[in-house]
Design goal:
By secondary structure, this protein is of the alpha/beta class. The chain has helices at residues 13-19, 56-66, 103-120, 149-152, 159-175, 184-194, 217-227, 246-256, 274-282, 300-306, 321-328, 341-345, 357-369, 371-385, 390-406; strands at 36-41, 73-79, 91-95, 125-128, 141-144, 178-181, 201-203, 234-237, 263-266, 289-293, 309-312, 333-336, 350-352. The chain is built from 15 helices and 13 strands. Strand 9, helix 9 and strand 10 (289-293) form a beta-alpha-beta unit. The longest helix has 18 residues, at 103-120. The chain is globular, with a radius of gyration of 22 Å. Residues 2-32 and 49-53 have low confidence and may be disordered.
């Protein structure tokens, strides 16, 4: 998961300067008998299959589903998606007609429509679940920051997207009453880069859905037959984009020099991914690499169960949810020893330096040739994954709201 999923772009300067002249009235002060009203920006929920359904979408979806039903509190969820039959009873959706799946429309909604909606709906607190809060905020705010990959790897982002993320994240760090990071690594990163006091940053790590578990061998075998998958293969799960470090994985695969365990890349095309296809061709790996594209959430546990190992060579992640999902399935994990990934994998994963293809190749050889590695993953993987819970994530998010509402006057 990461900031890259936001896909922002530079706002029109003339539009933003005009926005600054607009006055927003003070929020309604609720009486003691009224419910606390919290508004949540969930515009990165995606209604269509594709890479936008990964990463931030999953985090937003699961946290909303697991916010506890607390007496005296209600939620309005602002999104492009219409209400669903299984929406929690304490949540009301407000769907906008603006096409906020497009970057500029989302910026317009965040900066112009949301302040108006917050005043109209008499919000006591607003929560932006992806980096950006309104400049004209009429009540205290909480902002979730998934990672700062656009700061550390600026060349891995389209220029307009990077500039927008830099601008709105810095503004949120200055003005939000509380910030949420999704790992301790991310919390420390926000503190270092933006100077936000650690006591103003909370950590709410992702969970793992119950669907991710060891599945019956006959079900996994039928899945392999259905998709014509080999008995053993290496699996990478993630949107194709530069910081995923897939070219290093391809170099390690070439160094490994064996045909009995091809690589399957599961995940949609994000941006700046041409180098991946070029590296496959340059290394002559066309017969040993398969691009599966985006796969349905229902099939992902089967992919993990069928794989000989999950390989995640990312240079930087906000958390690394595929690691936890694979471990929950009892699948060995090989991951870069970078950013938050060791927090996800703990002692149950194998690690390598993210710039060392020889070390990665050695880890892959261990997974493929040493049965005890797979045996250990079947035991230690589910135990490590059991440390992460979406129910806990929902409860901890609600606790952040309590802290923001109880905080003395300060950043909005």
């Amino acid at each position: 998961m990461g900031g890259s999923s936001y896909n922002g772009a530079d706002a029109c300067p003339e539009y933003m300067s005009n926005l600054g002249a607009v006055r927003v009235a003070a929020p309604h002060s609720p009486h003691a008998e009224q419910q606390t009203h919290i508004g949540i920006n969930a515009h990165l929920l995606s209604g269509e299959a594709g890479y936008r359904r990964a990463g931030i979408h999953q985090y937003v979806y699961q946290v909303l589903r697991h916010l506890p039903a607390t007496a005296g509190r209600r939620y309005t969820v602002y999104t492009r998606q219409p209400a669903a039959a299984d929406d929690p009873p304490n949540q009301r959706r407000r769907a906008t007609p603006l096409p906020t799946e497009r970057r500029l429309a989302r910026i317009v909604w965040e900066q112009a429509v949301w302040p108006y909606a917050a005043r109209r709906d008499r919000l006591d607190l607003l929560h932006s679940m992806a980096f950006a809060m309104p400049r004209l905020v009429p009540c205290p705010a909480v902002v979730t920051i998934y990672d700062l990959s656009f700061v550390h790897y600026p060349d891995s982002f389209p220029t307009l997207q990077r500039r927008y993320l830099e601008r709105v994240t810095a503004d949120s760090c200055r003005r939000a009453r509380r910030l949420i990071a999704i790992s301790e690594s991310g919390r420390q990163d926000v503190h270092r880069v933006y100077g936000v006091p650690l006591e103003r940053i909370d950590v709410v790590v992702p969970g793992v859905a119950v669907a991710y578990r060891p599945l019956p061998p006959e079900e996994v075998a039928a899945f392999r037959r259905r998709l014509d998958l080999p008995e053993r293969f290496l699996l990478h799960v993630g949107t194709l984009q530069p910081r995923k470090n897939v070219p290093l994985l391809l170099d390690a695969l070439a160094r490994l020099g064996r045909d009995d365990a091809p690589l399957v890349l599961v995940g949609g095309k994000g941006w700046l991914y041409d180098a991946i296809f070029a590296r496959v061709a340059a290394l002559g790996l066309e017969r040993r690499v398969r691009f599966a594209g985006y796969v349905d959430d229902d099939d992902l546990p089967l992919w993990y169960n069928a794989a000989a190992a999950l390989v995640l060579p990312s240079r930087y992640e906000g958390f690394g949810l595929p690691i936890v999902e694979a471990l929950a399935c009892g699948t060995p994990v090989v991951a870069a020893n970078a950013s938050s990934l060791p927090e996800a994998g703990g002692a149950a994963a194998l690690y390598f330096a993210p710039d060392d293809d020889a070390a990665l190749a050695a880890c892959l050889a261990d997974v493929l040739d040493r049965p005890e590695v797979a045996a250990r993953a079947r035991i230690e993987g589910p135990a490590q994954a059991g440390r992460f819970s979406w129910a806990r994530a929902g409860q901890e998010t609600a606790a952040v709201y309590d802290r923001a509402l109880a905080a003395p006057e300060g950043p909005r």
